[in-house]
Amino acid sequence: MTAVLFTCAGRRVDIVTAFGRAGALTVATDVSPLAPCLYHADHHALVPRADDPAYVPALAELVREHDVDLVVPLTDLDQLTLARSRDELGAAVLLPEPEVVERVGDKYEAHRFFEARGISSPGTWLPDELPAEMRFPVLVKSRRGFGAEHIYRAADRAELEFFLDYTPADSIVQTVCRGEEFSIDVFSDFDGRCLNAIPRTMLHSTGGESIKGMTIKDWDLIEYGRVVAEALGLKGPATIQCFREDEERHEVTDVNPRFGGAFPLPLAAGSCYPELALELVNGGRPEPRLGEFREGVVMTRFYSHLCLTAGADGSLEPYSEQLPELLDDVKKL
Hints:
The chain is α+β, with helices and mostly antiparallel strands. The protein folds into 3 domains: about 5-95, 3-Layer(aba) Sandwich (Rossmann fold); about 130-170, no CATH class; about 180-300, D-amino Acid Aminotransferase, Chain A, domain 1 (2-Layer Sandwich), CATH 3.30.470. The protein is built from 11 helices and 18 strands. The longest helix has 14 residues, at about 220-230. About 40% of the residues are buried.
């Protein structure tokens, strides 16, 4: 059985359980004992923060303990650290090369990269390089941010100056796209070949995470996702966000080299991305299957929960909420 270690597992129960169904032995890690994903994996462990020097050694020890074959980051917090630590970890890491992780993590450098390769990207400037004439509105965005943090919309030059002074983040200024927004969930092999690209509509999102969406078999977007993924040299999963500005032009605004927040949607559409990841780490070389997914699959997300109680050793463990009898203090009510 292929063992997979998930880092910064947090709430990503959907991803860990999907790998389990695909046949993996799952090991989830997080800094918090309240991360619900921990309790849906075959094994779990608490580790130091991603910026702690002890973080990678702690993961390497878990790799040895569970004979882990593949490490899969579930957030943006530790991607660069993991991409640089493959040898120390002793397992394959489902990430592109460090320079690619750095490039897509820096929105200004990503914009320059796309422009140099003829891939459209909205006008993007550093605060001290703003042109005299700009099309408003514009966005003030964190240059290296994620999760839709520190994003402000400026309607004119006065508002732009205000938000640049107000934001605590190292920022860029970017033209607001006027077209329809799409996300494309891509998956590439370890040679950088895009194996599939599944576009979806952005019907509703909160905090940068898709809440409602639908898969669409739009061949322009499928090919666009392939071109962007292969130009960057992505490996493993990524989410490409773009706007359709006219019938022949798309503008890419962000690329996240991990499974997206809307992971259940491409999974339900038949992406088989967990199975592809396991095949790759076991030496397989699957052929591209662009367009092989079900269109018209709609996702709408909802809240769920997990209740925990103290175990015999003081750690937390799940417990059944089906109580055989009412507690005495409840009976008295």
